[in-house]
Amino acid sequence: MTEDSQRNFRSVYYEKVGFRGVEEKKSLEILLKDDRLDTEKLCTFSQRFPLPSMYRALVWKVLLGILPPHHESHAKVMMYRKEQYLDVLHALKVVRFVSDATPQAEVYLRMYQLESGKLPRSPSFPLPDDEVFLAIAKAMEEMVEDSVDCYWITRRFVNQLNTKYRDSLPQLPKAFEQYLNLEDGRLLTHLRMCSAAPKLPYDLWFKRCFAGCLPESSLQRVWDKVVSGSCKILVFVAVEILLTFKIKVMALNSAEKITKFLENIPQDSSDAIVSKAIDLWHKHCGTPVHSS
To answer: What is the pTM of this model?
Structure first.
């Protein structure tokens, strides 16, 4: 029996006895023991498998460049990150932009604005991207317990959207229609006949990466793929939402009703939607090869 077939046999066995992901967790632990973490292999792993919750923050921090690949530097680098966090927070309190009563997500927003030179004259002057940052920060709060980690991951995640994915994100609505047409052309025709296609909640889906749409327990599996290099996963989550609620959407005959429903989808289907969306993504885009 080859090494691959042995691994596949073990994976099937573990899934049957209720230990799905045991082999994957072991593979990740091996990768994380390297003196110098291989970011390419960590990206490939994250593309193929959901990250175990106990390692998610660490892997995200490495992939987003918050931590360097070398293990021995992690403690010192995070000490500097914490000092910077506290310095910026103190500065904002001095100029009375935040107080102890300010919601944490808003604190992160003001810190981000100060560090990027975009702090408005007054807290009452919102900027166009404020709502996107706040939505992502609020979702991240539910995923990452430590406030220093949460700020840095949110900041780098948003930076990734604004730089690495800047040209790709505006193309996602077109890709969404393309893949929905492949999966269910009749459903896309219905959206077009209702004039709903251009009015779908693309900002919620793609600019906010489903923050505020999916519960965080499901959302983090999607963000594993975004952090590790694929914003296209967002397209397949949107497609799968339409396929899952096809009967409901087909029964609605106005763009406003369809959009309103899609902005507030039932939460109890989210895990299944994300699992099917990841399968759909692999089906159309292939599965990255992981070598440990």
So the answer is: 0.89
- Rounded Cα–Cα distance for residues 155 and 113 (Å): 10
259-273 pLDDT, tens per residue?
999 999 999 999 999
Other beta carbons within 10 Å of 169: 17
DSSP class per residue in 103-124: -HHHHHHHHHHHHTT---SSTT
Report the alpha-carbon distance of residue 81 to residue 74 in Å, rounded: 10
| Tokens (6 digits) for 230 | 């694929």
Helix (H, G, I), strand (E, B) or coil at 51: coil
Give the tokens for residue 51: 């990250």
Contact assessment for residue 92 and residue 107, using Cβ atoms and an 8 Å cutoff: yes
Q: What is the mean pLDDT of residues 124-134?
A: 86
Q: b/e per residue, 190-219, with b = 16+ CB within 10 A? A: bbeebebbeebbbebbbbbbbbbbbebebb
137 residue type, one letter:
A
